[in-house]
Amino acid sequence: MLALRDPIRLIPLLFLGLILTGTAALSLPIATADGSRAPLLSAFFTATSAVAVTGLIVVDTPTFWSPFGQATIMILFQIGGFGIMTAATLFGLMAGRGFGLRDRLATQVERSRLDTGDARSVLKLVFAITVAVEALVALILALRFSAAYNMNAGEAVWHGVFHSISAFNNAGFSSFSDSVMGFQSDAAILVPIMLAVIMTALGFPVMQDVRRHRFKWSQWSLHTKITVAGTIGLLTLGFATILAMEWNNPDTLGPMGAGAKILNAAFHSVMPRTAGFNSLDVGSFNDETIMTNYFLMFVGGGSAGTAGGIKITTFLVLFAIVLSEVLGRRDAGLFQRRFGRAIERQALSVTVLAATLIFAATTYIASVSALPLDDILFECISAFSTVGLSTGITADLPPSALAVLCVLMFVGRVGTITVATALALGGRERPYRYPEENPIVG
């Protein structure tokens, strides 16, 4: 019963419960296109990927799953991205149940914010933005599918809604077998998806700050400044690298005109940071582009949104610490603000735990598979960071390796939230301190 009262323990249990429920639903004969029962591992892997808003798949979504199965997947990544406790609390409010301290704590843990005073406003903001953006993007995509690709109204609406929800929740699932590769030159399809991904990758605290203070930089919180500046920097890095390294690659940007090259480079600068849509064949990227993708995926997006990775703030806090050491400064900080020691230790802990988990998973999968190490590493980072991009090896992995990827996706979705929150809430001062002695470092 203790776990049910402790939000830090409750969140992972609820996500696990949703995964098991999704697995059961996808195991039904009605969930597959041919009416047979899906293999248990395929159903479990797909449910985990959907709830963790990752997008890695072992079977082709539009051909293997029936409309019921696809709708189930869509519901799973909508709830997984929106947040189980956020959804449960919202429904409780609608039913007139009220909004107690326990609800505030649980909602704030899931949204990675510890100030319970504004939990209600965060909840309202999350719901309003989710409904508005998903509806707008779905409308734009449906109209485009109908007008330019000869789809009937029902088909266009279905594809529009599916991709809108998937993009907003950074899930990366597509109702097309080749993701969005069939729309490489269509800005009316790629740009709305890209903007929806960027928006939620910033995180809801940033959206709330912008809503309160508009675009007045001086009034933004340090968190918002770091997230926005970091996002711009990472998008620029990804865009420049992909455009330069893939410009003449005959399997990616090479055959395209200049405009299409710029569009697809911009699209793929966004996707490695949190969403798994691809308009280019990732398996055909040059090694330099793959290396950049490692970095972009590992860092991820903003905190308290639907993005994965260690998060922009974590990376830039560590960068500031290193910079302060190099320059011989007493304090580490950014934008004329210094960081507290607790935040520095949290950033270091999250990064080391993430790197260790990815290293262990990569080592294990390499030991049970003959696939190239660079592809395995790409897959593991993508799974942990809930990105969903793949070089095409997912379906070729043995069952034990797929189970490891499921663990990575689950921990990547809920682990960093709970670990960071537990570190922030669990700090206790010992009544004593050991004598200081410094080992040799470096």
Automatic annotation (TrEMBL):
<feature type="transmembrane region" description="Helical">
    <location>
        <begin position="12"/>
        <end position="31"/>
    </location>
</feature>
<feature type="transmembrane region" description="Helical">
    <location>
        <begin position="71"/>
        <end position="95"/>
    </location>
</feature>
<keyword id="KW-1133">Transmembrane helix</keyword>
<feature type="transmembrane region" description="Helical">
    <location>
        <begin position="187"/>
        <end position="206"/>
    </location>
</feature>
<protein>
    <submittedName>
        <fullName>TrkH family potassium uptake protein</fullName>
    </submittedName>
</protein>
<feature type="transmembrane region" description="Helical">
    <location>
        <begin position="294"/>
        <end position="327"/>
    </location>
</feature>
<feature type="transmembrane region" description="Helical">
    <location>
        <begin position="38"/>
        <end position="59"/>
    </location>
</feature>
<feature type="transmembrane region" description="Helical">
    <location>
        <begin position="401"/>
        <end position="425"/>
    </location>
</feature>
<keyword id="KW-1003">Cell membrane</keyword>
<feature type="transmembrane region" description="Helical">
    <location>
        <begin position="347"/>
        <end position="367"/>
    </location>
</feature>
<feature type="transmembrane region" description="Helical">
    <location>
        <begin position="122"/>
        <end position="143"/>
    </location>
</feature>
<keyword id="KW-0813">Transport</keyword>
<dbReference type="Pfam" id="PF02386">
    <property type="entry name" value="TrkH"/>
</dbReference>
<dbReference type="InterPro" id="IPR003445">
    <property type="entry name" value="Cat_transpt"/>
</dbReference>
<keyword id="KW-0812">Transmembrane</keyword>
<feature type="transmembrane region" description="Helical">
    <location>
        <begin position="226"/>
        <end position="245"/>
    </location>
</feature>
<keyword id="KW-0406">Ion transport</keyword>
<keyword id="KW-0472">Membrane</keyword>
